[in-house]
Amino acid sequence: MKDLNTQFRKGALELCVMAMIYKKDMYGYEIVQNISASIEVNEGTIYPILRRLTKDGYFETYMVDSRGGPARKYYAITELGKEYFELQKKEWYSFIKEVGALIE
């Protein structure tokens, strides 16, 4: 059963990361902190998602100087990423509706 919960989390986390960046540009640690407020997650889970979504063209990155520390890499959603997010969101809601109907 634990493996199934892990699979649920992986799919949901990608959608959560996309939702965060859809709302506003963020840097990695900020994304981790925001998601961690609701879902138990660590950096080692989020950064591979960020790299893959960037590699696939859904995000782009830029650097911003930080006061008192190193520059931060910010993630911004691309137009392709917005389209992908909207599609994934529709599929997610359809999926949970269908599963909900089955388990009721």
Describe the structure.
The chain is an alpha+beta fold and 104 residues long. Helix content is 66%, strand content 18%. The protein is built from four helices and three strands. The chain has helices at 2-23, 28-36, 43-55, 79-103; strands at residues 26-27, 59-66, 69-77. The chain has a three-stranded antiparallel β-sheet. Helix 1 crosses helix 4 and helix 2 (28-36) packs across helix 3. The model has no long low-confidence stretch (mean pLDDT 91).
List keywords for this structure.
4 helices; three-stranded antiparallel beta sheet; 3 strands; alpha+beta; 104 residues
In short:
The chain is α+β, with helices and mostly antiparallel strands and 104 residues long. It is built from 4 helices and 3 strands, in the order αβααββα. Strand 2 (59-66) and strand 3 (69-77) form a beta hairpin.
What's the helix and strand layout?
Elements: H1 2-23, E1 26-27, H2 28-36, H3 43-55, E2 59-66, E3 69-77, H4 79-103
Antiparallel strand pairs: 1-3, 2-3
Q: What topology, given as strand order, has the largest sheet?
A: 1-3-2
Structural class: alpha+beta
Report how far apart the termini are.
20 Å
Rounded Rg: 15 Å
Count the beta strands.
Answer: 3
Count of DSSP helices? 4
Strand fraction band? Answer: 15-25%
The shape, in one word, is globular
Report mean pLDDT, rounded to a whole number: 91
Sequence stretches where pLDDT stays below 50 over 5 or more residues: none
* Largest beta-sheet details: 3 strands, antiparallel
- Residues in helix, %: 55-70%
Q: SSE string, helix = H, strand = E?
A: HEHHEEH
